[in-house]
Design goal:
The chain is of the alpha+beta class. The protein folds into 3 domains: 83 residues, Elongation Factor Tu (Ef-tu), domain 3, CATH 2.40.30; 145 residues, Threonyl-trna Synthetase, Chain A, domain 2 (Threonyl-tRNA Synthetase, Chain A, domain 2, 2-Layer Sandwich), CATH 3.30.980.10; 104 residues, Diaminopimelate Epimerase, Chain A, domain 1. 34% of the residues lie in helices and 29% in strands. It has 9 helices and 18 strands. The strands form 4 sheets. Strands 1-2-5-4-3-6 form a 6-stranded antiparallel barrel. Strands 14-15-16-18-17 form a 5-stranded mixed β-sheet, with helices on both faces. A hairpin with a 5-residue loop joins β1 and β2. The longest helix has 35 residues. The radius of gyration is 34 Å and the shape is elongated. The N and C termini lie far apart (82 Å).
């Protein structure tokens, strides 16, 4: 562990070492191995550090076969083997805050609800933990969040200790380590004892705060989404900007926005119902007008009519006359869409018809003998397509 400088001092932001080797993997990625490093490699749910080595960007860090590989965006220049590393401190400290916050939150869940954390993910904006419970009540979540923030405010020390497998029984571990050698414990005295290889601040106070954002049930577990430290402020700033923008739009102060939005949504639903009723009446009128021609074959081209509208209109027409066959075509958003329908007494198979005409527009579709639809490219305009259908009507609708 001597060459893993991040274990000796997680606050170390610059260091010097020698370049042991510099190679290129089969996928073309360039990497360097140093005699010692402060760059933390991806592991234990915590992402890798970034920064520079001799001014060259470090874009990834992984521990492979016992060596820490620093993946670079270009070759290191010849420097007689000397390497100067600079850690991206903002990213490192963010990961320290988030990882320590996860320990605190997981311990709080176990202490208050008796549930264990079975997995952990540290993302770019939020974190998640999966709990071995099937439900999480709001009041229980609030209690856990309160306890976690109390531990942070107490500014308890965060200690690390290397132990052997035989020494583990002396500690009230939250869960057993996944390794049997080089076991590293991260300890918050009288609160949490956990095996972990990540980087952490010296005290809980540097985590600053924890905020639960959301949770959802996934099979037989609950996934909790949360943020810690500076990310809490980022979330607050983002939500505050949204609320500030909504204020003038809703003409409402922040505390009244839920009620105003509820009224708006109710009004929107009522408006949509009224609009649907009006559209239904218009379609019924349109259907009666089409039926007034006493034609057994009704074909028409529309502009910007959805396939749902065509379907509804076709159903109204065929419901009004058992012996009518209907072909409706719509030109919309650079595509041709069409509906074919027949009344109960009309001959032919609409499914067969669709299968015959779809190749004309390189389209897709389907249906049954009495009702079918499809759509395709505008290799011809709507009138031309309808003309093609009507010109083949007799043979296409033959049973």
């Amino acid at each position: 562990m001597q060459n893993k400088l991040y274990y000796h001092d997680p606050y170390l932001t610059s260091f010097t070492a020698t370049v042991v080797k510099q190679q290129q993997e089969e996928d073309g990625r360039i990497y360097a191995v140093l005699s010692a490093t402060a760059f933390y490699p991806t592991g234990g749910g915590q992402p890798h550090d970034t920064g520079t080595i001799n001014g060259v960007k470090v874009i990834g860090v992984e521990e492979i076969d016992g060596e820490i590989r620093h993946y670079l965006d270009s070759q290191l220049s010849e420097t007689e083997g000397k390497a100067t590393g600079e850690i991206n401190w903002k990213r490192r400290f963010d990961h320290m805050q988030q990882h320590a916050g996860q320990h605190i939150l997981s311990a709080a869940f176990e202490r208050l609800l008796g549930c264990q954390t079975i997995s952990f993910h540290l993302g770019k904006e939020t974190l998640t933990i999966d709990l071995d419970i099937e439900e999480l009540a709001v009041e229980d979540a609030e209690k856990v969040e309160k306890l976690a923030n109390e531990i942070i405010l107490e500014n308890r020390p965060i200690e690390t200790k290397w132990v052997t497998a035989g020494q583990l029984s002396a500690y009230p571990l939250r869960k057993q380590p996944s390794v049997t050698e080089n076991i590293r414990l991260v300890i918050i005295p009288d609160f949490d004892y956990n095996g972990c290889g990540g980087t952490h601040p010296r005290a809980t106070g540097q985590v600053a705060s924890i905020k639960l954002l959301d949770w959802e049930r996934q099979k037989k577990k609950v996934r909790v989404q949360f943020v810690c430290g500076s990310r809490v402020l980022e979330q607050l700033d983002r939500k505050h900007r949204i609320l500030r923008e909504l204020g003038p739009l809703l003409n409402s102060p922040e505390q009244d926005m839920p009620g105003v939005l509820e009224q708006l949504l109710h009004s929107k639903k009522e408006t949509e119902k009224s609009l649907e009723a009006a559209q239904d009446r218009l379609l019924q009128f349109e259907a009666r007008e089409l039926l007034g021609t006493d034609e057994k074959l009704v074909g028409k081209v529309f502009n910007n009519r959805t396939v749902q509208e065509l379907q509804n209109l076709a159903r109204l027409v065929t419901a009004g006359a058992d012996d009518v066959t209907v072909y409706f075509v719509s030109e919309m958003d650079g595509r041709l869409q069409f509906v074919c329908a027949r009344g109960k007494a009309a001959p032919g198979s609409m499914k067969k018809l669709v299968g015959q005409v779809l190749p004309l527009i390189n389209g897709k579709g389907g249906g049954n003998d009495s009702f079918a639809q499809g759509g395709g490219a505008t290799v011809m305009d709507g009138q031309q397509f309808l003309k093609q259908i009507l010109s083949q009507h007799e043979q296409l609708t033959t049973v």
